[in-house]
Amino acid sequence: MKILVIAQQKDGKATSATLEALGSVSGFGAELATAALAEDAQAFAGELAGAGGGKVFAVSNAGLKNFDLKIYSAVCKELIDKFSPDLVVAPSAGSGNSLLASLAAKCGGGMVSDIISLRIDGEAPIATKPQYGGKALSEISSNGSDAPFFVTLRPKAFEPATAGSGEVVTESVSDECFTPSLTVTESSKSGGETVKLEEADAVVSFGRGLQAQENIPLVQDLADSLGGALGASRAVVDAGWIEYKHQIGQTGKTVTPRLYVTVGISGAIQHLVGMQSSKTIVAINKDKDAPIFNVASYGIVGDAMEIVPALSARFKQGG
Ligand SMILES: Cc1cc2nc3c(=O)[nH]c(=O)nc-3n(C[C@H](O)[C@H](O)[C@H](O)COP(=O)(O)OP(=O)(O)OC[C@H]3O[C@@H](n4cnc5c(N)ncnc54)[C@H](O)[C@@H]3O)c2cc1C
């Protein structure tokens, strides 16, 4: 079996979701290759080789500086044609879903997005995907066609690769791949976010129970004391308290941190589908019958205005 991992980088370093993608296939004994695409991919490719990336195809080109689906898809298609993988794996975060959907269409292969587990049965990759907001799990395999099977991985669902062996192969692809479909006129960093929501080990999410936008520093302080990121319910996003990029749930992001803390969130199903796979859930709500307590590992019944500052103070003490 041959497996190709399509890596993602941020500021020249492999993302944690990429290391999880390498970790997801490390035990299969397959012939492994990794695609490292960047404006200058050498250091990035070296990092992937050291993390067990197998044969790491380093493709460097100015056209790879920003994610342009047309360019990335054309380059990866050439790598797929050269390497002929049976399985192609990428993080679902960032550009992974759109890139693999495009490649699956070009190659005529099947694709499953946002999977939470992967195994090989004989020579057949089998992916597990949550359905109906996590109420059912589907096992999905390829229909046996010669085309590769494409999967994207849910962040935090797989253990990251730590170390391994690999070699960097400087790869060239045809010039036609680099015909852009868009021009980036300006880039700027949004927010002052220090921890990326999908990659955070701890997420503190707040809802309407926080009472007012002015109280957001209370939950931000708790998130900071845990080294985590800030999430939100749709109610407070719709109210304009915080940007949409923080929304967790059916119409927002799906997260699977080790610790998920809810502050003044009732626990509507549309919120639960975005967070209920979290390892440990702590719910703070003044209503002891709030549905969030049905999925919580630990529940604190009381006023968030008193509990949240007390927790932050305790975590800052290291308690
Ligand atoms: C198609 C569709 C898609 C949706 N997508 C999403 C989505 O992606 N994400 C999402 O979150 N929602 C989504 N929703 C909305 C969802 O149904 C709920 O309306 C929303 O999640 C409720 O947000 P909330 O828990 O902040 O507010 P509320 O339901 O109003 O709950 C507030 C909670 O705060 C508690 N509280 C009040 N005061 C305090 C206090 N002082 N201390 C502690 N607790 C207190 C209350 O007891 C209550 O449980 C969607 C809805 C639809 C129809």
Task: Characterise the protein shown here.
This protein has helices at residues 16-25, 42-50, 69-83, 96-107, 216-225, 234-238, 269-272, 304-316, and strands at residues 2-6, 9-10, 13-14, 31-38, 51-60, 87-91, 111-115, 117-121, 124-131, 136-141, 149-153, 164-170, 202-206, 229-232, 259-263, 280-285, 298-301. With 319 residues, the chain is α/β, with parallel strands linked by helices. The strands form 4 sheets. Strands 7-11-6-1-4-5-12 form a 7-stranded parallel sheet, with helices on both faces. The protein has a 5-stranded parallel sheet with strand order 14-13-15-16-17. 24% of the residues lie in helices and 29% in strands. It folds into 2 domains: 2-178, HUPs (Rossmann fold); 197-316, Rossmann fold (3-Layer(aba) Sandwich), CATH 3.40.50. It binds flavin-adenine dinucleotide. Residues 207-209, 211, 233-236, 247-252, 264-266, 268, 270-271, 274, 284-287, 290, 303-305 line the site of flavin-adenine dinucleotide (FAD).
- Which series of helices and strands comes N to C? EEEHEHEHEHEEEEEEEHEHEHEEH
- How many domains? The number is 2
Q: What is the fold-level CATH name, i.e. the topology of the largest domain?
A: Rossmann fold
Would you tell me the overall average pLDDT?
94
Strand content: 25-35%
Question: What percentage of residues falls in helices of 4 or more residues?
Answer: 10-25%
Radius of gyration, taken over Cα atoms and rounded to an integer in Å: 21 Å
Bound ligand species: flavin-adenine dinucleotide
Largest sheet: 7 strands, parallel
* Name of the CATH first level of the largest domain: Alpha Beta
**Helix/strand structural class:** alpha/beta
- E-strand count: 17
What do we call the CATH homologous superfamily of the largest domain?
HUPs
Give the N-to-C terminal Cα separation: 48 Å
Indicate the low-confidence ranges by residue numbers. Answer: none
Instruction: Examine the secondary-structure arrangement and name the CATH architecture of the largest domain.
Output: 3-Layer(aba) Sandwich
- Going across the biggest sheet, name each strand in turn: 7-11-6-1-4-5-12
Approximate shape? globular
Number of helical elements: 8
